[in-house]
Amino acid sequence: MGAAASFDFAAVTRAGMGATPPVASGTSAAVQGTQSVRRAFELLQLVAAQGDAGIRLSQLVLLSGIDRGTAYRMLSCLVEQQFVDRDEHRLYRLGPAALLLASTLTQPMPLLQRFGPAMKRLARRTGDTVFLMMREGDHVHCAHREDGPSPIRILSTVIGQRRLLGTGTGGIAILGLLGREELLALHRRHAARYAEMGLDAERLLKEAEQARRQAHAFTMNNLEVGIGGVGLAFRIARLGIGAISVASIAAKLTPQRHHELVTLIAEELRQIEVELAFADRPD
């Protein structure tokens, strides 16, 4: 957007992506035309959020508020440019061009620039290992970790690792942001894998409800025996969901320590100015 134009970004936010934004006097026709670009990016973000599961046109129309004809034309253009893939079942997923574009970054630099300093402070203040977990469809991805001075090293999660939602402290914290039907659909898609982990649908729902009620996740012996964790979920940008978690020796996680970790993580997330998933709930 041109810097010279006076533009009411708050009004755009209130109006939503599907509405026509107010245009300041003197704003060029080219700037006004960016609504189509916004909508195309919104569709791309919605497709990306579904990961391997894919998403149908009808769902995209419902979530975006874009009319069906416009959404179909934009998706067809994204398919043509290989940013989106449409399979024989008419499910949309990210295409090779989007994946190739992401692969040109040797590290997720924007995330590291934003979260790295806070994670270093947490690792230093707690002495423990701090993880940044980002949702990728039905999975969580370890985008970064910071090891504190503790001689105990957490071996179960490394940078770049992906695991199903609901496993690991960060993955459980993120569950709290999902509704009942979404959770049940998630479990159906990966029933065999969840069964291997002894995680039935009822337990998945209980884990999500507990994360919502507590406004954070608290785990003991989840991925490693003798290791516990505390994690808080957050939202970033319009559709991004992630969690910051701290893993510690279980013996150290007394009720007082548990509360301290929740407070420390929440303070850092507020400083980064991301939206805490349960900001209206007590720590």
UniProtKB/TrEMBL annotation:
Coiled-coil annotated residue ranges, if any: 194-221
Cross-referenced InterPro entries: GAF-like_dom_sf (IPR029016), HTH_MetabolicPath_Reg (IPR050707), Tscrpt_reg_IclR_C (IPR014757), Tscrpt_reg_IclR_N (IPR005471), WH-like_DNA-bd_sf (IPR036388), WH_DNA-bd_sf (IPR036390)
Record SMART domains: HTH_ICLR (SM00346)
IclR-ED domain span: 97-278
The entry's keywords: Coiled coil, DNA-binding, Transcription, Transcription regulation
Transmembrane segments: none
Cited PROSITE patterns: HTH_ICLR (PS51077), ICLR_ED (PS51078)
HTH iclR-type domain segment(s): 34-96
PANTHER family xref list: HELIX-TURN-HELIX TRANSCRIPTIONAL REGULATOR, ICLR FAMILY, TRANSCRIPTIONAL REGULATORY PROTEIN
Protein's UniProt name: IclR family transcriptional regulator
Protein's organism: Aquincola tertiaricarbonis
